[in-house]
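Tokens in:
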């Protein structure tokens, strides 16, 4: 794209973001948002809210705010059956907006600050909290949770584009629950304003609206912590038909050294007694005392496809990923392992952490450290793709193309409402 096109797109999106974060004069906004279910905050009967700016609450069916609070005071939202109580009235749903840059949500277990609007519905006496905000602001709270902000700026840019693309593809995944994505590892870990870092925010800013496409559509931009020197084909890790851009690659430099070799998670070992391992594997079926455990098949990248366990009471077969789930993905960190019998039991020795498909995050940092740019990094891990900048918002390319109207609370609303009562 030419520089003029780039500048125009950047200006359009900058204006949209400014409308959310700027002064109290910006009362209305009309642009695509992503709805993030705050699953990590839990489902509770009540939440408390506060903000460093004046804030208000609105019934989505009405353009008027019906309640407002001064900065640094508290509001309470409570579930009653399938309705939401604020003050002495019940509503099917409410959303809170602040004249400041964030609203703080305080629950029984944790408190976090969020940009955008906080939306609440209730079901059987429990609240569902949803953060509605522009995609780029969402990514500011995602990237530092997915990659250390201290890593190379080019790696952070690659991470921002991969996360943006993956999110676009996940839009609507939880539509039955009232949101597009949640804030856990099922989508992306998202911790709002408290997670933000200037370095990762800059990576989001300079790559704004860039996504990865294959054959004209956003890809499923999967990534893993450490590939172990070779990434996995999608069909290898997920036992499903592969896709052209998620192919196994040797993640090595010209000297044959893995780009991720400096990661402290590159190698791992885990040992079990025979009784510990038998107890874990018996969750799948009858096994008894474990007599034999062997790798039966490996995929093109060397990852384990199947494991056979023989006990004195039965025999069981597992896929490599199934074994990881049973024993714990933080224990058996990847399917790139081999098994050894020991005097005490069984020893797993492996490389890498995660499913291994797509971008290796540690490898991306290693590539950046030797001079590769973010587009070179992404094209190394995703075969045959293009990186494009989308006008407006990338959400419109792969989703409901819905534009929502959300009002920004301001002091003008509060004073105007008071004037009407005089």
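Residues out:
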């Amino acid at each position: 794209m030419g520089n003029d096109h780039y500048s125009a797109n950047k200006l359009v999106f900058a204006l949209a973001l400014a409308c959310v974060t700027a002064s109290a004069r910006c009362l209305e906004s009309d642009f695509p948002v992503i709805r993030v279910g705050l699953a990590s905050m839990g489902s509770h009967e009540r939440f408390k809210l506060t903000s460093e700016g004046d804030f208000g609450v609105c019934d989505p069916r009405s353009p008027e705010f019906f309640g407002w609070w001064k900065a640094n005071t508290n509001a309470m939202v409570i579930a009653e059956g399938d309705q939401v109580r604020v003050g002495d009235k019940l509503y099917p749903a409410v959303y809170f907006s602040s004249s400041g840059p964030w609203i703080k949500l305080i629950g029984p277990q944790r408190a976090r600050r969020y940009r955008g609007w906080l939306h609440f519905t209730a079901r059987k006496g429990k609240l569902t909290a949803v953060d509605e905000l522009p995609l780029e602001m969402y990514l500011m709270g995602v990237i530092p949770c997915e990659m250390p902000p201290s890593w190379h700026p080019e790696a952070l840019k690659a991470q921002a584009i991969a996360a943006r693309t993956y999110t676009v593809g996940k839009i609507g995944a939880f539509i039955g629950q009232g949101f597009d994505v949640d804030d856990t590892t099922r989508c992306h870990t998202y911790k709002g304003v408290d997670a933000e870092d200037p370095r990762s925010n800059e990576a989001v800013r300079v790559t704004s609206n860039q996504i990865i496409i294959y054959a004209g559509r956003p890809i499923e931009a999967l990534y893993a912590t450490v590939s172990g020197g070779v990434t996995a084909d999608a069909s290898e890790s997920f036992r499903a038909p592969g896709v052209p851009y998620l192919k196994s690659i040797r993640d090595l430099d010209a000297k044959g050294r893995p780009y991720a070799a400096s990661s402290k998670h590159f190698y791992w070992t885990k040992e079990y007694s025979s009784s510990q391992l038998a107890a874990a594997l018996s969750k799948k079926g009858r096994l008894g005392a474990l007599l034999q455990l062997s790798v039966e098949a490996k995929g093109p990248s060397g990852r384990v496809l199947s494991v056979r366990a023989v006990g004195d009471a039965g025999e069981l077969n597992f896929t490599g990923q199934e074994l990881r789930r049973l024993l714990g993905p933080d224990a058996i960190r990847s399917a790139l392992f081999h098994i050894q019998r020991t005097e005490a039991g069984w020893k797993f020795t492996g490389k890498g952490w995660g499913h291994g498909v797509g971008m290796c995050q540690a490898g991306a940092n290693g590539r950046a450290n030797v001079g590769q740019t973010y587009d070179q990094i992404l094209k190394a891990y995703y075969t045959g793709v293009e990186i494009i900048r989308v006008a407006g918002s990338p959400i419109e390319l792969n989703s409901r193309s819905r534009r929502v109207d959300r009002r920004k609370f301001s002091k003008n609303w509060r004073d105007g409402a008071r004037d009407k009562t005089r």
